Structure formats: structure tokens, C-alpha cells
Amino acid sequence: MRPPQSITAVLRTPSSSKSTSRIFTRNAGRKVVASDPQNEILRRSLYPSNIRNKETPTGTWRPDVMKALRRAIPSKQAHETIERAWLLHERHMRWKRNEEAERKFESMRRAMAELEKVDPILFKEANRVEDPRKRTPAEVELSKSLRGAPKKAMESRLPGLFPREMRLPTDTPPREGWVYNWRP
Amino acid sequence: MSASVFVKRCQVGRHEQRLGQNFARSLATHAPQKPRLAVAVVLNRAPIIAKTPTKFERAFYKYQARIQRALHNPFPYDFYFKPGSILEQQFNKEERIRERKAFGKDFVTEESSSSIEVERTDEDEVPAPRRTSADETKDVKDLNRQGSRNLYLLVRDSTNGKDEWRFPKGNVESGELLHEAARKQLTVQCGDNMNTWIVGRRPIGFFEEQSGISTDPLLTEKTFFLKGHIFAGQAQTQDSISDFAWLTKQEIESRVPKDYWLGTKDMLSDL
């Protein structure tokens, strides 16, 4: 989030524009007798006013915004240096990630080239793209003969799709830790 | 294949062809044989927790949070907190602490004389620690170790007098596809007590080495590696493997023979 170049720079929308944002503020300025203050509160938070008659481009700043901003940002040059340092850091991360992806891809490409040389049938089968919706006749037969847990296992792992158990990394690990006593 | 080329160059006549084929058959022992195919599984335990931010990243996030605190849109306090309620007082108290932390102890927004101390009675607030007990003991069999890194299953092979660490490997039967062979070999080698998934049909790498069975220099064994993920369970030592370990990429480098490392390191993740 970047503060504007000059705090006093004003972003005014042209007053004669009939943009669709007007529709959302139709209820904003409505003065209604406060029969139920909760309704008023709700209306104010759901339909904030976007009438730009203040200095701020985004809404009503806190009243001591200049003081707070002076505390937060050491100086304009310092802020720009921090921005550049961050972008540089991001660039380095990106390069590292891309390099690793390239190494992995190259390894895979070499493996597939070798497979094509060694066994063309296996190569062809490896390149086949399976439709997760289709079931081969052999699989249909197999699924009829299975019951219970093996059937569930077969139905849960659809070829070409990610399994449900794949988990996003979180900030802290699960309370119980790794599940060791897993039965097929 | 010099034998087949020879056969093709022979005349069309049947007699000559038969002669040619007999000749080719007699040459068979000297022709390069088909390399044995093996399949191995690079079983990965994906990171459980997010990467620890570096000092620079932490400082930057704090800096951005300060700027946002100074500039953000008005928060609808009266929508979320009923005026005069205890929850509002609690929130205001915590907000003042946060403001002081962001802008300094002498940054005073308003004087508040609320002295009501409200105790937080949240039962399960404390999250599990990022560094687990497995990290302290450095137990390589524990799957809770190194939550932010990728761990790979390495298996110790003590057959035929050799003792080395490698990825679980097995042979491909004729007519079997690579990913099916991988799945089967994984259960054979490491037990079926693991919830695993082989990613797709394509191998991610290959490694060529001398076949351990014969001393023929032309007979090499080509191992194709397939990637797999483990979601639950644990590997079991069987008669084929004497030991196993879940290691990060750097730890694998120290355990595995040099040429094997150079052939397989590109498949593994740094992080």
C-alpha cells in the first residue's frame, strides 16, 4: 500500500459523470428518522459514501493521519529505498523458483527422451492423457467386484486429478501432528 | 542393431533370408541387449507449515502494516461492537496496545480511563509450535520433522553386500505401465501402511547404472523415477530394505553415493 506522492493531491471524480458507482451510493446520503439505529449503522457500513468532497481518495482518514503517517514512514527517500529493496528481494525469489522449475523440467524432459528411446510403448502410454470422467471397461468390472474400503479407495483416486488429502501449508502444524496409524 | 541391418541388406529370396536370420541369431549374444528397466519412487512429504519469513520480510511486513494502519478506511466500530459493551472495551484496550506498538509509546490518540479488566476465557487458543519435538531430537524417521521443508523417503539397501541409501526401486514387469509398476513396487518395498499418490504417468528423471546381476558392461539398468506424495501413515522396514529415513535435499546429498546424487538432485525441491 503506497501513500500518495503528495498528501494534498486530490483525486476528484468529475461531478458530471453518470458512472455506475452512483447507483451504489443511492442509499448513502438518505436521511431517515433513526427509528432503529441498527439499520442506520448497517446502511452506513454496507453503502459507504463515495462523495469526494474531502482530501482523501479512499474515504475518511483517521483525524491524525498526518501525525501517524510521519511516524510510520521515515522519509520519502527511505520509503522508496525500502520499496526497491523489496522488489529486488521478490525478483531474487522469482529467479530462484524459476531456476528450480527449469532444472526439474529438464530432468523430466531427459527422462522422457530416454524412455522414448528405450521403450516406445511405455513412452506412448506415459504420454496418454486420461479423462477423469471416463472409466475403462476393466475398471468398471473391477469396481463391481469390490466393496467397502477398496471400492472407496478406487473411487477417491481419479486419474488426472489431485487427491483430496493434499493440504495447503499453514502457519502452525496440526495439533495432533502426523497421522501414523493409517489403514488402507 | 547391426544384426537386423545385416538381415535387411540380404537379398529378398527366402533361402537367403533364412540364412540371414540364422546368422543374426548366432550373433545375438554379441548384440547390445535391451537394458533392464527399473522404476523408483521419489516419495515426497509436502511442507506442512509455511516458510519462515526472513528478518527482512518480517520487517517489511511490519512496515507495511504500520502504513496501512495510518491510511486505512474507517472501520465501522459501531457495526461490530455494541456501544458501551464489554467487548467494545476489550477491543479498544487491545487496539490501544496495537497503536502504541505501531507508532511508539508516546503516540497518544485519546485518553481512556477504562479500568475494567476482562479475562479472556478462550480454551483452544494456543496453536501447536512450529518447531516440533522431532526437530529437537532430529529423528529422521519422524514425519513431523522440518515442517516447512520437502522430505523425501530414502531407503537403505543392504542386499548383495552393498550398503547404500537410495530411493525405493523395483523392476518393471513386461506389459506393465510405469506408474502401475511404481505403485506396486512402493507397496512391496515400503509396506502398504502409507496413504500415497503417484503423480501422473510420466517419469521425472532417470538414472543409468551397471546392473548388479551380470558383469557385462553393456548391460545397464535404467531406473525411471516417478514422483509420489505421502499423506498419512509410515514406511515399514521389510526384508528388501533394512532402514528408511525422511530427509531434506541437503541431507540426502550427504548420505547418497556421489554419482547417484548428481543424477537425481535435479528432481528434488530446495525448499
UniProtKB/TrEMBL annotation, chain A:
<dbReference type="GO" id="GO:0032543">
    <property type="term" value="P:mitochondrial translation"/>
</dbReference>
<protein>
    <recommendedName>
        <fullName>54S ribosomal protein L28, mitochondrial</fullName>
    </recommendedName>
</protein>
<feature type="region of interest" description="Disordered">
    <location>
        <begin position="129"/>
        <end position="169"/>
    </location>
</feature>
<dbReference type="GO" id="GO:0005739">
    <property type="term" value="C:mitochondrion"/>
</dbReference>
<dbReference type="GO" id="GO:0003735">
    <property type="term" value="F:structural constituent of ribosome"/>
</dbReference>
<feature type="region of interest" description="Disordered">
    <location>
        <begin position="1"/>
        <end position="36"/>
    </location>
</feature>
<feature type="compositionally biased region" description="Polar residues">
    <location>
        <begin position="1"/>
        <end position="24"/>
    </location>
</feature>
<feature type="compositionally biased region" description="Basic and acidic residues">
    <location>
        <begin position="129"/>
        <end position="144"/>
    </location>
</feature>
<dbReference type="InterPro" id="IPR042831">
    <property type="entry name" value="Ribosomal_mL40_fung"/>
</dbReference>
UniProtKB/TrEMBL annotation, chain B:
<keyword id="KW-0809">Transit peptide</keyword>
<dbReference type="InterPro" id="IPR033650">
    <property type="entry name" value="Ribosomal_mL46_NUDIX"/>
</dbReference>
<comment type="similarity">
    <text>Belongs to the mitochondrion-specific ribosomal protein mL46 family.</text>
</comment>
<dbReference type="Pfam" id="PF11788">
    <property type="entry name" value="MRP-L46"/>
</dbReference>
<keyword id="KW-0687">Ribonucleoprotein</keyword>
<protein>
    <recommendedName>
        <fullName>Large ribosomal subunit protein mL46</fullName>
    </recommendedName>
</protein>
<dbReference type="GO" id="GO:0005762">
    <property type="term" value="C:mitochondrial large ribosomal subunit"/>
</dbReference>
<keyword id="KW-0689">Ribosomal protein</keyword>
<dbReference type="InterPro" id="IPR021757">
    <property type="entry name" value="Ribosomal_mL46_N"/>
</dbReference>
<dbReference type="GO" id="GO:0003735">
    <property type="term" value="F:structural constituent of ribosome"/>
</dbReference>
<keyword id="KW-0496">Mitochondrion</keyword>
<dbReference type="InterPro" id="IPR015797">
    <property type="entry name" value="NUDIX_hydrolase-like_dom_sf"/>
</dbReference>
<feature type="domain" description="Large ribosomal subunit protein mL46 N-terminal">
    <location>
        <begin position="36"/>
        <end position="135"/>
    </location>
</feature>
<feature type="region of interest" description="Disordered">
    <location>
        <begin position="113"/>
        <end position="138"/>
    </location>
</feature>
<dbReference type="InterPro" id="IPR040008">
    <property type="entry name" value="Ribosomal_mL46"/>
</dbReference>
